[in-house]
Amino acid sequence: MAEEQNNTTMVVFSGDLDKAIASFIIANGAAAMGDKVTMFFTFWGLNILRKENVQTPKKKAFMEKMFGKMMPQGPDKLGLSKMNMGGMGAKMMKKVMKEKNISTLPELMEMAKGLGVNIVACTMSMDVLGIDKDELIDGIDYGGVATYLGEAYDAKVNLFI
Amino acid sequence: MAEEQNNTTMVVFSGDLDKAIASFIIANGAAAMGDKVTMFFTFWGLNILRKENVQTPKKKAFMEKMFGKMMPQGPDKLGLSKMNMGGMGAKMMKKVMKEKNISTLPELMEMAKGLGVNIVACTMSMDVLGIDKDELIDGIDYGGVATYLGEAYDAKVNLFI
Amino acid sequence: MAEEQNNTTMVVFSGDLDKAIASFIIANGAAAMGDKVTMFFTFWGLNILRKENVQTPKKKAFMEKMFGKMMPQGPDKLGLSKMNMGGMGAKMMKKVMKEKNISTLPELMEMAKGLGVNIVACTMSMDVLGIDKDELIDGIDYGGVATYLGEAYDAKVNLFI
Q1: Where are chain C's structural domains?
Q2: Searching chain A, which residue's CA lies closest to the CA of residue B156?
Q3: Helix/strand/coil for C143
Q4: A67-86 b/e with 16+ CB inside 10 Å = b?
Q5: Which terminus of chain B faces fewer neighbouring Cβ atoms within 10 Å, N or C?
Q6: CATH of segment(s) C2-160
Q7: What stretch of H or E contains A37?
Q8: Do C128 and A100 touch (CB under 8 A)?
Q9: What is the pLDDT of residues A5-50, one digit of tens each?
């Protein structure tokens, strides 16, 4: 029964490295305990799912191209929500985490896939930001607010990050 | 019975255009599915509810005047949480959304009212920021943390945005 | 029974003064109504729990020292998430709150302790940011994501701030 499960959902709105790490640590922790986890990536959060330097066949409008160029392409390009200092903060944090043997964001994302975390890209945000399916990582789902709410109503823990 | 319903609450703390849009899309989606939705606007979130260029009869202290002048007045004046570039980012996003026939924030807010979404302004934050009832849009409620918690305990989905 | 209680949890990720105040107002409101409240402080949120100018016996690596120096030490040093203006915004808000007899953040934190709010520092974030137990306020607990999830699954209201 759905009521018996400790389902978890997250709206990942932010595209900051630190918040992305936090969201995947929570997601993987919950999934490792056997729970169903759905992460719904919207707005800047979509940048976490972008592939690096991908060329899409889609013909983009001027503003879509501009958004595309200016937004970070994938987990290695994200900045911190605080103390980013033009990217130096993000580099420092990645270095420290490596030294302390803490998983990097790409590793956490791989883990999430392995644990069956359901990764959903928000199609409306993709449309607004001009992001094509070809530009996002493989093995993810696509949906809108109804998809999200359907999962959230079955979940015990719902976070907006 | 309260337990049977999929009530939703949101603390809308942020006054960013992108986060405001996201919160109303979720609110309207939930309300359209027949759920009771309460949005509790606090701190910078109050700016979403401000009328433009309104004169309040209330005599304001120096700092209240300053906060009032510096904070955005209503949905058309909000900036983005990222890539705002002095307002250019917000303009770009509004232009793109219009081109793609996605509802604007003022339209989403009208829809929310029509769907019966309960909009509550946090009275303590109004006091801190020196915002008077005359300065906020009509048809909303006022309350404090107890109002919020009362709704949140009956809800299945509670978000802080 | 756990199901009968209106437990509340918060992940306090942000170290901004305004968000810290909001989180403690919600926590204290819920605790005053007799509910069990757990606040899980992670990443920048740890700065809220730091003592001022404390010397730790721990020998720190270069980057730990740098993070330690650059991050705000305790509630009096935090900035606002918006309109901070190099600290002036935070000063203004504290002044206004004092004039209106609203509790300051240190007072809210004392109240939380008195009401039995469970304050947990995230050990993984402490490790990443190089923060030692000696540097955090007394009377708090320590834990990881499993601690958080254990509380969240028993709670009705779960927020990420």
Answers
A1: 2-160
A2: A153
A3: strand
A4: bbeebbbbbebbbbbbbbee
A5: N
A6: 3.40.1260.10
A7: strand A37-41
A8: yes
A9: 789 999 999 999 999 999 999 999 999 999 999 999 999 999 999 9
